[in-house]
Amino acid sequence: MKFAKFLAIGLLCLLFNGGVFALRYSEPPKEGEPRFLREEEEKRSAYKMYLDKGIRYFKKGLYPEAKGFLWEAINLYPQDPDAYINLAIVHMAEDNYDTAIRILKKSKDLAPPGYFQEEILLYNLGLAYFKKENYKEAIDFFSRSLQIYPEFRQAAYYLSLSYERTGQSQKAQTLKEGLDKQLEAVESSEGQTP
C-alpha cells in the first residue's frame, strides 16, 4: 500500500512538473555545522562559477552568453557589485554605454566603503562617459580613480585624452609627461636584476 501511494505521488509530480524530475544530492552537514552555512557555501560557489563563466564567455566574444551567466550571478547575490561591473563591461563592448552607466551606478551604490575594486569601478564609469563623449563626467571619474590608485596608467591616459578634448591642453600635457616618466621608470627597473 505504501509503495502504491509513493508511486502515485511520483506520477503526480511528473505530470505537474512537465515530466522534469530532478534529484539534488547533498551530503548532510558535518556534526556541529549548521545547514544554512553549507547552503551559503554552495550558493557562493555557484555565484563564483557563474561569474567566472561570464568572464570567460566575454573574453571569447560571446556576449549574450556572458550576460546570461552574469545575470545568474546577480540573481544569487544581488547585493554584490562584482557581477554588475562585469555585466557593464560586456555592455560597453557592445557599445551600450547608457546601459553600462546605469549598471555601474548600481554597482557603485552597492559597493561598501573601501571596496577593493573601487578604482576599477570608477575607471569603467569614466570610460563609458568618455565613449559617450561626455568628457566632463569622464574627467571626474578618471580623476577619482587616480586618487585611489595613482599608478593606474589607463585612467591617466584617458584622463589626458579627456582634458585634450575639453581644451585643457596644459593638464593633458602634464599627465602625458607623468606617464612618460612612469614608463621610463618601469623600463629601467626591468633591466635590473635583483
Ends distance: 80 Å
Number of helical regions = 9
Largest sheet: none
SSE class = mainly alpha
| Share of β-strand residues | under 5%
Number of domains: 2
- Helicity level: over 70%
Outline the low-pLDDT stretches: 1-29
Rg from Cα: 24 Å
Mean model confidence by pLDDT: 82
Morphology? elongated
CATH architecture of the largest domain: Alpha Horseshoe
Name the CATH homologous superfamily of the largest domain: Tetratricopeptide repeat domain
Element order: H for helix, E for strand:
HHHHHHHHH
What does this protein structure show overall?
This protein has 194 residues and is an all-alpha fold. It folds into two domains: 38-111, Alpha Horseshoe (Serine Threonine Protein Phosphatase 5, Tetratricopeptide repeat), CATH 1.25.40; 112-183, Serine Threonine Protein Phosphatase 5, Tetratricopeptide repeat (Alpha Horseshoe), CATH 1.25.40. It has nine helices and no strands. Helix 2 runs parallel beside helix 4 (81-93). The chain is elongated.
Summarize the structure.
With 194 residues, the protein is mainly α.
List keywords for this structure.
194 residues; elongated; mainly alpha; 74% helix; single chain; 2 domains; Serine Threonine Protein Phosphatase 5, Tetratricopeptide repeat
Question: Could you give the topology of this structure?
Answer:
Blueprint: H1 2-16, H2 35-59, H3 63-76, H4 81-93, H5 97-110, H6 118-131, H7 135-148, H8 153-165, H9 169-190
Helix pairs in contact: 2-3, 2-4, 3-4, 4-5, 5-6, 6-7, 6-8, 7-8, 8-9
